[in-house]
Amino acid sequence: MDKTIANFEVDCVVVASAVAGCEQGAGGAGGAGGAGPGGGRPADTIRRVRVKMSSVSAQGVVERASAELSRRITGLGLRGRKRSPGVVERMASALCGPAHAAPRVPRRKRLDTRPLLWPQFILDEKFLEKFFLYFNANERRTLAQVCTKWRDLLYSSPRWWNGLVAVLDCRELRSASGCCMQRFYNSIIRRGIRGVVLVSATDDDINEFIRQFPLSAHHIHAIGLKGCTITDRGLEAILDHLQVLFELELTGCNEITEAGLWACLTPRIVSLTLTDCINIADEAVGAVAQLLPSLYEFSLQAYHVTDAALGYFSPKQSASLSVLRLHSCWELTNHGIVNIVHSLPNLTVLSLSGCSKVTDEGVELVAENLPRLRSLDLSWCPRVTDNALEYIACDLNHLEELTLDRCVHITDIGVGYISTMQSLAALFLRWCSQLRDFGVQHLCGMRSLQLLSLAGCPLLTSGGLSSLIQLRQLRELELTNCPGASPELYDYLHEHLPRCLIIE
């Protein structure tokens, strides 16, 4: 024990002497070796430590000496502008490295989680962008009249108006101010509307349209003239003005002649519709065949067109013409069908609706020579029978849509032929008066059928129609004017075909 105390005593004396030297240097008043007024302080310090050691145990000596040294060392420091780091700080620096301030973490901006009020909500652009998607282009016309905010947002993008055409009744425009019409024409540009229909227009209305809407020359792609009294001169003026016109429709324009078509038609037209124009006959079809080499779609409704008109088509159109619709061409016979299949073998859409002189033999020509057909319309062809449906089922393997409305000689046997067509997705049998429940049973095996119309079929019963629930893939079913369709049947169909639109 004494040896331990003696060793510790020596250590303490050394440390105390060092502390005294530090204090002397810091004070600047004491001399070397403890001389002078401040020279007795180190000796006093050493003496005090020794006295305390002699009167306490070894453990107490250690504790008290440590406390005394810590107190004195902590109080030491240089007298200057900047304090030197203390012992504790130096030890911490040696053991842990130099202390650095912790990087300051930027405070996250607090989000405003308060819900929008209804007046704010209905003007929020993010909400409106999704809200407008639930409406079609025609319905958005009304939405644009709610307020200026909705109008400006809808007018800002053409995507809201795809497929919409602007219809102008020229009888009303004659009393409208020029400023009002200018605003309307500007809205057509802003909305990206590329189609215009002029109703009841005269030559003067055409000239006024060109004057007030000069931007239409390079903006309008499609124009329709309905019930107009314009002459060949007015037609020539509008076609010369519209430099990017691709689609032309003439309906009920009885002042336009075949000579006018020869003078006006431009090769850039790819879609042409001529309907109920009394001066349109075979020569008009000749003008179309000669002047429109890039024609893709041609729709014709003319009572005086004969088989000879279809002979004007040549291999020039065979590569481009894909859609041909001949409506109510009463003079067209099977000889005209021969001209069609030889000149236009690449047709994908053919309509012979109302061509009442076409028979089963004409349909056979179509089935054998137009293998690319996707859509065929034989509605209002009273001479078509079950035999024609057999030709269709055997040869038109890619047919997706078939229309047989008012084909009164179609029976369950013919429907049985059709039911073997695996690619058929749309079938229209409106007012087929001989169709019975047995024919409906045939239809239940058509797994690709998505659209079916049995409207006006008088012999169908609720029992036969209820079997349609087997068509799980059906998306639209039309049963209007069916005597066998009862409210109970509709409830039954709605229950088992929840994804099908049932038109009652």
From TrEMBL:
InterPro entries linked to this entry: F-box_dom, Leu-rich_rpt, Leu-rich_rpt_Cys-con_subtyp, LRR_dom_sf
Annotated GO biological processes are:
SCF-dependent proteasomal ubiquitin-dependent protein catabolic process
| Record-annotated F-box domain positions | 123-161
Q: Which domain of life is it from?
A: Eukaryota
What GO CC terms are in its UniProt record? SCF ubiquitin ligase complex
Q: Name one Pfam family in it.
A: F-box
SUPFAM superfamilies, per database record: RNI-like
Q: Give the matching PANTHER family.
A: F-BOX_LRR-REPEAT PROTEIN 16, PARTNER OF PAIRED, ISOFORM B-RELATED
- Name this polypeptide is given: F-box/LRR-repeat protein 16
Organism of origin is Papilio machaon
Read off the lineage from the record.
Eukaryota, Metazoa, Ecdysozoa, Arthropoda, Hexapoda
